[in-house]
Amino acid sequence: MEKGYEEAIGLYDRAIAQQPDLPEAWNNRGGAMAGATLRDWQSCNAIRRRSHPMIRL
What we know:
- By secondary structure, the chain is an all-alpha fold.
- It has one domain.
- The chain has helices at 3-18, 23-51.
- 4% of the residues are buried.
- The model has no long low-confidence stretch (mean pLDDT 81).
């Protein structure tokens, strides 16, 4: 996971802990988590393609 995403998720976690009924914090935390997951998935697939050129995901 990229450092920017990790940092953002941590900051949103702190905001949610202080104010759990803040919908923007929940929404933005979800967006950061989705971005991090997509980035990790793309990185894994790029490694697979380099290691096994016949695999196309």
